[in-house]
Design goal:
The complex is a heterodimer of chains A (about 220) and B (about 260). By secondary structure, chain A is mostly helical. Chain A has 8 helices and no strands. Chain A is about 85% helix and about 0% strand. Classes of the chains: A mainly alpha (about 220), B alpha/beta (about 260).
């Protein structure tokens, strides 16, 4: 049985992995982009900044599983034709964005005031100084915690199974219910998630090294 | 006083940080091509004054004009000053270069990129043209062989010379230098002062904050002595240093000679 476990379960699990990879890519991209935008908006004066703050607090303070359920049950009430994937992607992206916003905001504040002084003294308007000097340095500084967050987002996609989105962990559970082989199947799933996360971690390290500058 | 418009005109400028009044009605002029050195003890307001001229610090009252243009404000009805939008202030800053005590080079750019950045991004100079100009400027400060090196690989003196080239790349009408040698090892001070001296000889208008009295004597046309936010004494450099009129400047120079401020 254990010899054939690989042969029997791997093809279907690999198929499910494709879904997990797709979902992860959407969530990581959406969450990162949105998080950076939120970080920049959060620096604005009162009304906008306050809205961002409240959003970040609420998103961070509620478990991802609850967000997934909320999106899955509420979104169709507000909009027609919301697919499962859309609802789940949205919930997970917003959740990740809240954390990314905090990471990036902290990194921006960590960039020395003297550098933005230099940019301003050269006649750069605030947005240009942010885009050319502060943000590139802040993103470099934020890379390690951002990578951390990405890995968590990838593993977090397993919660999509709670609303019946067929991805790696749901595929695994289906097999187990049919064949009662929890050790082999969960073992395989663990290895697949581990490979995904390791891949991303390594890609991130290379990216970090590529853009590194000496202090 | 000549009749021509001064390059910089500072009139009754007041700057407060909370309850602390750092500049308390400061006035002085800088003529075109003139080098004015600001001296004074730490906390006398020299750096703040310099930062007010390019509006890195917002002054609370008074007027600063550079090339007959009011900096940071526009005159509204009944002579009231209304703050300019940041974008307008940014445009005003393109005409003044500033060099900082701590160099403040962009660490993610090479020396060449540091010098090219503002002409390309702010003035819209084509890249090839900006690069040629940047290389010429690096040559002028003696660093053409360091064009592709990041700041972390440069000595303090080299970084400061790149910072000067970066400021010059905007072809400023005025250069503000804020204690540009204070963070340098003594043996590196000379190379930076030499560059500034050459600029002065070329007729660049400069306002310089420095603790290098010997340098001030050599390069300055006039010296302005600040104490506790006031201009206490100003005059022709050599005369003012060798024959100070006010007790406060006399005391300052005496302490200086005795090395308390070094």
């Amino acid at each position: 049985m254990s010899d054939s476990a690989l042969v029997r379960y791997l093809p279907i699990l690999l198929q499910a992995t494709v879904v997990t990879v797709y979902l992860s890519a959407m969530v990581v991209t959406g969450g990162t982009v949105l998080g950076v935008v939120l970080a920049l908006l959060g620096r604005r004066a009162r009304p906008v900044g306050l809205v961002v703050d409240v959003f970040v607090y609420v998103m961070r303070g509620v478990p991802l599983l609850v967000h997934v359920f909320a999106a899955y049950f509420w979104l169709p009430m507000l909009l027609t034709d919301v697919s499962k994937v859309t609802a789940v992607t949205l919930a997970m992206s917003l959740y990740m964005a809240a954390f990314v916003a905090e990471i990036v905001r902290g990194a921006i504040e960590g960039i020395s005031r003297t550098l933005s002084d230099a940019a301003r003294s050269l006649g750069m308007p605030p947005a240009l100084a942010m885009r050319r000097v502060v943000l590139p340095l802040a993103v470099r500084a934020a890379m390690p915690p951002l990578m951390n967050r990405m890995v968590m987002a990838i593993k977090g996609t397993s919660l999509a199974s709670a609303v019946g989105l067929w991805e790696l962990s749901l595929a695994g559970r289906e097999i187990i219910q049919r064949d009662l082989a929890p050790f082999q199947v969960f073992g395989l799933i663990a290895v697949l998630y581990f490979c995904l996360c390791t891949l991303v971690t390594h890609a991130g390290r290379r990216l970090e090294a590529r853009f590194a500058y000496e202090h | 006083m000549s009749t021509e418009q001064p390059m910089v005109s500072v009139r009754q400028v007041i700057k407060r940080f909370g309850a602390l009044t750092v500049l308390d009605g400061v006035s002085f002029d800088v003529r075109r091509g003139e080098v004015v050195v600001l001296i004074g003890a730490s906390g006398s307001g020299k750096t703040t004054l310099l930062r007010c001229i390019n509006f890195l610090e917002r002054y609370d009252a008074g007027e600063i004009e550079v090339d007959s243009q009011l900096i940071g404000y526009r005159r509204g009805a009944a002579g009231r000053l209304a703050p300019l939008p940041e974008r307008e202030v940014a445009r005003q800053r393109t005409r003044m270069g500033m060099v900082f005590q701590s160099y403040n080079l962009f660490p993610h750019f090479t020396a060449l990129q540091n010098v090219m950045e503002a002409p390309v991004q702010v003035l819209g100079v084509p890249r090839e043209e900006a690069e040629a100009q940047a290389r010429a400027l690096l040559r002028r400060v003696g660093l053409d062989d360091k064009a592709d090196v990041r700041p972390a690989r440069l000595s303090g003196g080299q970084q400061q010379r790149v910072a000067i080239a970066r400021a010059l790349a905007m072809r400023p009408a005025l250069l503000l230098l804020d204690e540009v040698t204070s963070a340098l090892d003594p043996e590196l001070v000379g190379e930076v002062l030499q560059v500034i001296k050459a600029l002065a000889d070329d007729g660049m208008t400069m306002v310089i904050v420095t603790h290098e009295m010997q340098f001030a004597r050599e390069v300055a046309h006039r010296i302005v002595f600040l104490d506790a936010g006031h201009v206490v004494e100003e005059g022709v450099a050599k005369q003012l240093l060798s024959d100070p009129q006010t007790p406060r400047l006399q005391a300052f120079l005496r302490r200086f000679r005795e090395g308390y401020l070094l």
